[in-house]
Amino acid sequence: MPTIRDDRLRSILTGIGIAMLAINMRAAIVGVGPLLDVIRQDLDLSTTVAGLLTTIPVVCFGALAGFAPAIARRIGIDRTILVTMVGLTVGIAIRLAPSIAMLFLGTVVIGASIALANVLIPAVIKRDFPNRFGLMTGVYTMGISIGGSAATGFMVPLHESGLGWRRALGILAIPALVAVISQLPGLARNRQVTTSISDRPSIPRLWRSRLAWQVSLFMGLQSFVYFGMGSWIPTILHDAGLSLESSGTYWAIGNLAGLPASMVVPILAQRMPNQRPLLAGTMAIWVVSIVGIMVAPASSPLPGW
User: Fold this and answer.
1) Is residue 244 part of a domain?
2) What phi-psi label fits residue 167: left (phi over 0), alpha (psi between -120 and 50 degrees) or beta?
3) Is the pLDDT of residue 153 over 70?
4) Summary mean pLDDT of the chain
5) Which of 71, 136, 216, 235 is surrounded by the most beta carbons within 10 Å?
6) Domain boundaries, position 147
7) Where are the alpha helices (DSSP H) in 4-46?
């Protein structure tokens, strides 16, 4: 029978795994953006084909996310999370192979792994941290922001340091591997809990739910905006005359700007009866930012840059 100490250790390891996985939830995808021109020229790819490197994961999100609850019910949510962590690590490693086919295969594996994790991680947070749901959600979203910022800010310098773009992207396997290792003790105790998934409404009920469609549309559109901008902002800035390094740094700064909100907003949302003002404010900031980039992409927001 698990003791209080076992439960505490399990919570700590779960928290580490969630944080490490969060770092790669966006980094493994948006990290490609600043290097897209380099990859395209190195592999002699067309702009359309190169764009698939950032489009494929988003397609995976839409196509595979619905399977996550069924897989979790069948093999257990903890094992499913471990599979996503292993898949993410393997996908990043596959991209190291000197082959265009392996580059795209690794991208598919990464997209599939993140698609499942996107659905299951909130359920794990709710299950393991019921009294700190807002705080842990903030940690999770903050990890996503930090990972995305680090990836976009450091990929070009790492590439230009002599690592090359493949090994620069391969460094992202480190936090994914740490996430895998952190979950092995819990798996060894074979403690599988699936309440958070099995209590969800059935798929037929969701198909008839107006709210489910609204939430799905909102989440799909915000993912489309984020990954679309994350993939092409560095390229847009580079085409406007900025260096590759500066272009990646600008997008990294944009991610870091949202770091305080990533921590505070989930806690506020948990305490507010209506989260619509938060969503409206967030969308307004996105609109202003996108219009600004389209109108004056080379205008520096920082003195001296």
Assistant:
1) yes
2) alpha
3) yes
4) 78
5) 136
6) 4-295
7) 4-30, 36-43
